[in-house]
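quick one
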Amino acid sequence: MTKRGNVASRRASRGLAPLALWLALSALACSDRKEDDRKETEPEAGAGELNLRQVAAAAGKLLGTAVDADALRADPTYAEVLAREFDTITPENATKWGPLAPTEDSYAWEDADAIVEFAEEHSQAIKGHAFVWHRQAPSWLSSSMSADELRAALKSHIETTLARYKGRVRAWDVVNEAVDVTTESGYTASVFLDVLGPSYIEEAFRLARAADPDVLLFYNEVGIERMGAKSDFTYELMKELLDRGVPIDGIGLQSHVSTHRYPALSDLRANIRRFADLGLIVNISELDARTLLMPGDGDSRRRAQRIAFQQVVSACVSEPGCEGVTLWGFTDRYTWINDEGGEPDEPLIFDRDYRRKPAYRGVLDGLSGALPALGDNLVSNGDFAAGTEAWAAAGELSIRAAMDRSGAAACVSDQEAGLVQEGLLPALAQGGPFSFAAFVRVEAAGEATIDAELVVEDDTGETRTLSVATLTAQGQEWREIAGYVGLGFEPMPSGIALRIFGSSADAELCIADVRLQPLAP
Ligand code: XIL
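structure w/ XIL:
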């Protein structure tokens, strides 16, 4: 059976500090928040109700999760939920080079073996992760090694690992996060880049293919879910490597999203499609969704989070080139998002006590291809059909026919002040999750960051801002900016305005089709 046959047959924003303060205040004012947080969990699946694994199989997509070896050993509920809900596993740390090879001539297979054995017992596929990454690489690798020494180490590691798991691991992330468009070269600083230059990417794939002709080989990358400088660079890199016959079978879009920093559905789908059109299998490889930039109670955060999961999963389900979605963990009890300290977030689909969150329902809905139902647009004159009515801008504001789009666009000369609509409080007072989206275009070459935020005023006249969506725009194309926000006010503010603005002071910003819509429960 061919490799592809196998696949088929498997059938931060400005205003953060004041916002944190506001959150703390609202938590104090709302002493029953813990109770609130408890309410919004899904009822346990009843007898006969389908789990995610079954629904994914029916949709013809893989559904996976990252797995932590310690949790798997120590926590029987973790193992039980893992076996029941997922058909694919990515070891969260156990198959990274550093953890696998603590010294130059020893291997620590215990954790990786435990995960592989568990997966085999439960008929789950495995994606090994990752041969080459600038983080969690062995401490004994160094930039003072010669090219030959590093090459030999890489060869030995790839061969040893592939040989151990031959026929048992379906796919490997061969190279992880090699692109960093903030550097001069466009490549992430690493010992590999230092010693071998960017050709280490190609070399790693060729070594892996030579060592195992059957396993699927993936490139995995962070922050390339939507179109933009980084995903363009990665796309060109993949294209160039494939053109030269480098054996890459697939690409993983990590998708560590936040409900306010989120790829618009159209954008994510178009991006998946262009990678698939290169002949790559596309995989959503590390999905989780942070919520902490949202104010309000646990319920509304969790309902907004549900939509994030639903949309990413449904983007994959709607695109034939996307083989499946892997979540970066499944219970808020164990999530890397909380490793760095700070206020704990809850980015996953089961809560700390393994109760299904609304996000679980989001994955289920996404697997059935359902998109969230949206209510009426709460923004007045969002399509600018009535000219500038309901909008204000510092500097010049002009309404014109949107170039390359139907309808009108509002163009502001002072991009940093942006475009503002006040008076949204009555429409938003009910709270609940909202979907925000607009099309934006920057009339300049180069890159600009576009942000949408809600400016919330309390009765002392103090204002706080809440990021709703953000996007890096490049070139003069229309791009959709989107995000989800959960609102719940305690105490009730005295005014809310929407502001859309950009970072490039000397270029005009055009905006079209602005929508802020409540999500149907
Ligand atoms: C993370 C793990 O989840 C953490 O436990 C570990 O401390 C650091 O790495 N992108 C990746 C993953 O490709 O390997 C990372 O996993 C998360 C970001």
